[in-house]
Amino acid sequence: MSTNRLLEIENLNTTFHIHVGQVQAVRGISLHVDHGEAVGIVGESGSGKSVSMLSLMRLLPDYAHISADRIYFEGQDLTNASVDQVRRLSGDRIGMVFQDPMTSLNPLMTIGRQMQETLRVHRKMSKADAAERVRELLRLVDIPDPDSRQKQYPHELSGGMRQRVMIGMAIASNPSLVIADEPTTALDVTIQAQILALLKGLMDKIGTSVILITHDLGVIAGMCSRVLVMYGGCIVEEGLSREIFYNPRHPYTWGLLRSVPRKEGEHAPLIPIHGTPPDLINPPPGCPFEPRCPHAMRICRTGMPRMTQVSDTHRLRCYLMDEGAPKVAWEGGRA
Amino acid sequence: MTAQPLIRAERVSMQFVIGASILNARKRVLTAVDQVSLDIHRGETFGLVGESGCGKTTLGRLLLRLYKPTSGTIHYDGHDITTLTPQQMMPFRRRMQMIFQDPYASLDPRMTVSTIIAEPLRRTEMDRAQVDARVRELLSLVGLDENHARRYPHEFSGGQRQRIGIARALAAGPEFIVCDEPISALDVSIQAQVVNMLEELQQRLGLTYLFVSHDLSMVRHISHRVGVMYLGHMVEMAPVNELFTNMAHPYTQALMSAVPIADPDASAASRRIILEGDVPNPMNPPSGCPFRTRCPVVMPVCAEVKPELKDIGGGHWVACHRV
Known about the structure:
The complex is a heterodimer of chains A (335) and B (323).
Chain A: E1 5-18, E2 21-34, E3 38-42, H1 49-56, E4 64-67, E5 70-73, E6 76-77, H2 83-93, E7 94-97, H3 101-104, H4 111-122, H5 127-140, H6 146-149, H7 159-170, E8 177-181, H8 189-206, E9 209-214, H9 217-223, E10 226-231, E11 234-240, H10 241-246, H11 251-258, E12 307-309, E13 315-317
Parallel strand pairs in A: 3-9, 3-10, 7-8, 8-9
Antiparallel strand pairs in A: 1-2, 1-4, 1-5, 5-6, 10-11, 11-13, 12-13
Helix pairs in contact in A: 4-5, 5-7, 7-8
Chain B: E1 7-18, E2 28-40, E3 45-49, H1 56-63, E4 71-76, E5 79-80, H2 86-93, E6 96-99, H3 113-118, H4 128-141, H5 158-170, E7 176-180, H6 188-205, E8 208-212, H7 216-222, E9 225-230, E10 233-239, H8 240-245, H9 250-258, H10 264-269, E11 310-311, E12 317-318
Parallel strand pairs in B: 3-8, 3-9, 6-7, 7-8
Antiparallel strand pairs in B: 1-2, 1-4, 4-5, 9-10, 10-12, 11-12
Helix pairs in contact in B: 4-5
């Protein structure tokens, strides 16, 4: 293992036991994040991108069953750590930013007090120290006039301001990793641009790594050096951003890239992915994308395809990569 | 363009009075749409973009006369519909329809799909068998199965529900449909399905759309002409290619540059204009140009005089003192 590894997860599975059966939300994913790196996880709703991160932080309800062969974070083995241990560590070393800042902030507390709370619990800071740190954090996330802002309640702030407060709270204890789960989905584009610029700036300033969960390929292209594509609880393809955007190999990734209009704007019809995402209650044994895949073969129904390595950084799960499989090429890419 | 437009709005404004109640006598006025003029021609898709709260939904509802404008006039197919009573509006009602953003909230969970789709047909002279036949026809038109008719909305995915909403909108055979953020609640792979279907239906049925969205790349894809709104004002309006290659208003430029590009190299090479601050409170709008508080190229005159929409050629209209 290289010394630059911040986080390493191997074979993570998360299953929810509910009355109708078992929902296999995350099915054997492995991933790693290096220091200072921004990794994007892209996928549609229900693909398991949020649940995999919540599993890492052990923030799921009791009926979720989480197992993994190996979880390493900052050199510590968390594979068999207790929930309390993980939460204590992650509360301090991993910051989290959620999609909707209005529901993740306490409406009855001023933002100054909520931000101080994190510091007093995790860092055992005195009230005065915490107050000073909060002012510093608000300046760091570019909130004008921090002294009067921290006396305000969440409803008095705009969506963009609230998301800045959330980011301020996430970086309060100088975490080595920030997990941002659809941080800009609820925001307008001009505000989204502000928040993404802020996140990028903070990565440089405080050297934190970022895992960015989003359904927006554009956001990933602008922010992340590496991308994981999730579908039906699995990572179906992963690679450097350039590999995923310019040389994608998985039919689902092709589908994703073809279903958004090109910037250049000539009027080519969009090519949608037919059908709907899979039901994860007792899913069939084959490739999760098989029912919607235009290139599906008989073998695709028999079992999960293994990971095929395309380059040191680029790998995917698809039977089209097998020797003897029909040659199907990506047509949407650039020369 | 000499043909008579299907919709013509002239200097329409919509003001809402907020906070007037027994307890609170102090009235405040929110101008959601401020003196907007536009024409929409038959068979055309007019895209309306802008950030939340800019008045695009209100404008859509005004054109359908779901609101009565505070001032200005609206003509539909040459008829002045600005002040018609609900009874007088009836003949126009079936010619205009709406598709909503949230396919979960816009379908009654206690109605079957066939009742939902048949609802606009209730005031027609169709008998039971004709209605059933029409429902079947509509279901196949939007790519759903006949035996879906007896099911309830909760049995369908978001994309399928949006198809049900579209079938309902088409039921009475409208000419004009306001699509209010019809794809924003859907997954990326499903968005393309719905947009393709809307385009196909337009060609087959000769529909006219007002496509309201904050997704600029989809608006660029589907629209013939596009209007950009900011704080209740139409700040720029042009044919789609003209607007996207030759945008003239600083707000449009900032809005376009803020759109994330799904291409790492293009994204790294693009020059982003990052606007500072938030949209001003519409109850207390700035004097002069509504955009001047965030405009990167603001001048003293912008605080004093509100810029009018000017024609800069080729059907391209801009409201900016710099132009």
